[in-house]
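How it folds
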Amino acid sequence: MTGAKIIPFPTRNRIASDQDKLAHALESLRTALGEQRNALSDWRFAMTELGIGVAGLSHSLASYRHTLGDVEDRLSGLRQASTRLAAWADGARG
């Protein structure tokens, strides 16, 4: 076995001091807080966009309601005209 390659076992990292552990924990906390701040900012932006969309929908529904009211008024006028016309036709026959 002259061509064999010996692979060494992995070595453990040196044992970190309490100060190193604390520094690492604080850095992890800073990173997590930054990510949370970004997520909150993104959420607020999404809520603003949702509010704009809901306001637009409300405006569209109000316009639709107004249009339906106009259609109802016109139909009521046509119904009255058709009733008068039917009465006139009945009178003309008879």
Remarks:
- Residues 18-93 form the longest helix (76 residues).
- The chain is about 80% helix and 0% strand.
- The chain has a mean pLDDT of 91.
- Residues 43 and 67 are 36 Å apart (CA to CA).
